[in-house]
Amino acid sequence: MQLEVELAARKKTKIDAPTEEEQHGFVEGAKEIEEVRIPEFMDQTRLPYAWSVIRERALVDSRDGLKPVQRRILWTLYEDKVLPSREFMKVARLAGNVLRYHPHGNTSVEDALVRMAQPYSLRVPLIWGKGSFGAHPGDGAAASRYIEAKLNKEAVELLDEIPSGSVKMIPNFDDTLKEPEVLPVRWPVGVINGSQGIAVGYAANMPQHNPTETLKACKLLLRKPNASIEEIMQVMPGPDFWTGGQVIGIDGVQEYFRTGKGTFTVRAKYKQEQQTRGKVRFTFYELPPNVSCESIVQKVRNLIKTDAKFKEGIARVDDLTGRVNDNDVRLLIETKAGSNSQEILAMLFKKTELQSTFSVNNTVVSGGFPKMMGIRELLLEFLELRKQCVLTRSQNYKEKKLARIHQIDGLLAILLDVDKAIAIIRKSDSQEDARVKLMKAFKIDEGQANYVLDMQLRKLTRQDSDALKAEDQQLKEDIDALDKILTDDKELRKVINAELDKEIKIIGRPRLMEITGLTDEEAKNNEKQMLA
């Protein structure tokens, strides 16, 4: 009854007519309206939006192998000194800090940061997480206000050269801060960690690879840039996901190594145990990438209800994952007495995600444009970045050492008669007067005079000319070594090779996936025999 009274009262309420000022504002605003046909509007706006998604969000850069959000997360944490030796920080706060550089909302940053800490999302995680980040595909992380994170040592290897000026710094989105255009990565992040992304008209699905093998392939290409795909696959035989499993379809692996596009199959690994009364128990302990035990259990239970062969052949299906430890995968499927266990196994591979196809699409941003690249091209892009970083870093070091030699030359000139220099400084009416008199008396330039004037007098009197001469000699030897790097390609490659050896010790991992060597055709023939 009360609701009816309120509705009746609202109907009787009169809406006040707009004031003259409001009418004037509406008319003035309407003058700025521009009529545009929908096809023209789409042409003007869709292309810029598409380029933004392709270049700034969905695809990795061919040089450092990172998406913009990943690069900005790493840079923000490094800039804020959230380092391995420091305290953890709440993910919610970290995400807020990243928004200084990434103007796409805190949810996108939080999701990306969580993925960078999950071992099953990246072959070499870049974030050290504290709290519930998930242990298996399908697991969700706790809310960002409950979990904490910081950079790990592997991530620091991607950032440590920034202070040396090895990469270009560019303005952020509102031109208030500077961020690196690319990171001076010391290992090929995109090839090792893989990537998935959907842009406008383009998509990427890059598989993970073994860190040790990938770095060895880099060493091969550094020594022999024209190495064939067969030579590369001798040291880097195929994908290597954290989840393990068996790779079937070596022809598809060869194809994506060569062109950047190809398909291979991943089959779960299992143990087979004979039980009483002819029963057989299959225990699956490694699954294909992005497949959860929970989804397999649900699929098998549905098949038992709808497929007579599954109903007659399967007695039990259980997810025992995590019973021993968080990272333990254990999916148990037991056949019934009298059933054909090999036929059941073949049906499981055929009708569930225990055997999954992975379609590779190595689309990256290269030179500002999307491009599909094979493994050899991707690794050469990384090596080219390393060369540029080492050359720029060496040039910057050389300039700093030359500047220090210049300062030492000025000091040594002053130390020839330090009492005279002190007397000039004390008797001068101003710093400008002292500078001019020092330059004239000791034949030094303005920069050298300023360096002397900036020193405290007690430090000036304690300067040891022998120590300065020894430092000068060491600096000249260092410059000679840097000149070799800058002018001799062989010396440059030697430095990069030594760095790759160092990275193998830091991020090296044993292979987890088994490469069977079977082609797709051979695998299909084996399946037919199991079902026969």
Can you offer a commentary on this structure?
Helices cover 52% and strands 14% of the residues. The protein has 22 helices and 17 strands. The strands form 6 sheets. The chain has a 4-stranded mixed beta sheet with strand order 14-9-8-17. Strands 10-11-13-12 form a 4-stranded antiparallel beta sheet.
Q: Can you summarize this structure?
A:
The protein has 532 residues and is α+β, with helices and mostly antiparallel strands. The protein is 52% helix and 14% strand.
Could you list some keywords that capture this structure?
532 residues, alpha+beta, 4-stranded mixed beta sheet, 4-stranded antiparallel beta sheet, 22 helices
Topology:
Elements: H1 2-12, H2 20-30, H3 38-58, H4 68-79, E1 89-90, H5 91-98, H6 106-115, E2 127-130, E3 148-151, H7 153-156, E4 169-171, E5 178-180, H8 189-193, E6 195-198, E7 203-206, H9 211-223, H10 229-235, E8 246-248, H11 250-259, E9 261-267, E10 269-274, E11 280-286, H12 293-306, H13 308-313, E12 314-319, E13 331-335, H14 341-351, E14 355-361, E15 363-366, E16 369-372, H15 375-415, H16 418-427, H17 431-442, H18 446-454, H19 457-461, H20 465-487, H21 489-507, E17 514-515, H22 520-531
Parallel strand pairs: 8-17
Antiparallel strand pairs: 1-3, 2-3, 4-5, 6-7, 8-9, 9-14, 10-11, 11-13, 12-13, 15-16
